[in-house]
Structures are given as structure tokens and as C-alpha cells.
Specification:
By secondary structure, the protein is an alpha+beta fold. 54% of the residues lie in helices and 12% in strands. A four-stranded antiparallel β-sheet has the order 1-2-4-3.
């Protein structure tokens, strides 16, 4: 995957937030946080350039880029955070104003014809069958019309985190699904299984919220 373009833009967008939350949430000193951030950049670029290019129409490139960003910082931390610590750090580092704005915008079209069509197209693509760093999913509408489930059978984040020895920390990233759904304001996120916890699949359920 080429670093130029979206991956480079994502570094510029999130580097300060990651730095700031190293200090506020993980208790790392300012000087060490500056050092970690500086060292993480070439590591991030190295991870990105090892990844294959994603197919046109694959909506999950952003997900794997975010994962590469987190791994780059983890590799440079002197002390490995717990799942609980990383869950707080990752949520707060990622939910900066631009992320919240993106979620609110996505929430306005949640469950629209365009959204449903995109879910079906992603399911039909089955990109994870050819790219181990992408996802393969099935679109399952709820029979009562209350929303839908996106059921994932492969997970690029699991693959990449396992390669770098951080598979046990994947649940910290999974938690963001709840946060982003809540920020969108249109759905309540529900889940029973994750691949990271040994489940048969990851079920990402989106229940329509009642207006008002």
C-alpha cells in the first residue's frame, strides 16, 4: 500500500491526539510521549508499505490504516498497556472533533437506501477472501425491520495485530464500534461474538433508535 494519500493524511490528522492521550490516559511523560510519536512515524510508514493495495470498492481501508497507526505507537511504548488501558486511550485518541463530525454525518444516512446498498455491495465483494487484511461479511436485515446485522467472518485487524504480537489487545479496537454508533445518533450497537474472543464471527448489529 502506498503511504502517500490517505495513510499520510491519517497520520497528520491523528498524531497530535495520540500524543496527547499518551500523556493524559497512559500517564506517559511529555518528553517520552514526544519521543514515542517521533519514532512511531517511520514505523507506521513501514507497516503501511508492507500492506497490499485494497481493491476498488473495499470500504475497510481506513480500518486497517487506523490499526497500523495504533500498532506503530504500541511498538514504541516502553510498557505494554492492558486491554482496559488501551480501550480508554484508543477511544479518546480517535474521537477527536473531525471523527465526531464524520459519525454524525454517517448517522444522518444510516438505514437509508444508499446505506443498505453499500452494505450489500460490501457483502458481495468478499474482499477478505483475497486480502487477509480486509473483511468478508454477510448483510442480515432484521425480520422486524428494526435494523440489520453485518456479520464478519474475516477481520483484517485481527490479522495485522496478530502479526505484530498484539492480538490480545484487539478488543480495545472492537470497543470503538459502540462509540461510533453512539456518536452517529441513529443506531444502538449490539454484539454477541467477536473473532478476537474466539467467536465464530463478529456480529455488528445496528438497531434503529426511536426518534425523540
Amino acid at each position: 500500500m502506498k503511504y502517500a494519500g490517505m495513510p499520510a493524511a491519517m497520520w497528520m490528522l491523528y498524531k497530535k491526539s495520540f500524543h496527547d492521550h499518551l500523556v493524559s490516559d497512559l500517564g506517559i511523560s511529555e518528553n517520552v510521549a514526544v519521543k514515542i510519536t517521533k519514532q512511531a512515524k517511520p514505523e507506521y510508514r513501514k507497516i503501511i508499505e508492507k500492506l497490499p493495495e485494497f481493491e476498488k470498492g473495499d470500504r475497510f481501508k481506513t480500518n486497517i490504516v487506523n490499526c497500523a497507526l495504533l500498532i506503530a505507537f504500541l511498538l514504541k511504548m516502553e510498557q505494554r498497556p492492558t486491554v482496559e488501558q488501551l480501550t480508554i486511550f484508543y477511544e479518546r485518541a480517535m474521537t477527536m472533533p473531525s471523527t465526531k463530525m464524520f459519525c454524525r454525518k454517517a448517522g444522518k444516512t444510516k438505514f437509508s437506501e444508499k446505506d443498505i446498498a453499500a452494505q450489500k455491495a460490501t457483502a458481495a465483494l468478499k474482499a477478505g477472501d483475497r486480502n487477509p487484511y480486509s473483511w468478508t461479511m454477510k448483510y442480515i436485515p432484521y425480520e422486524d425491520g428494526s435494523g440489520y446485522e453485518a456479520r464478519f467472518f474475516t477481520c483484517g485487524i485481527c490479522t495485522l495485530m496478530k502479526e505484530y504480537g498484539f492480538f490480545d489487545l484487539v478488543p480495545a479496537m472492537c470497543h470503538l464500534d459502540y462509540v461510533m454508533s453512539d456518536l452517529g445518533g441513529a443506531s444502538t450497537f449490539v454484539r454477541e461474538y467477536t473473532l478476537a474472543s474466539g467467536g465464530p464471527y463478529c456480529d455488528c448489529g445496528y438497531k434503529k433508535r426511536k426518534k425523540g
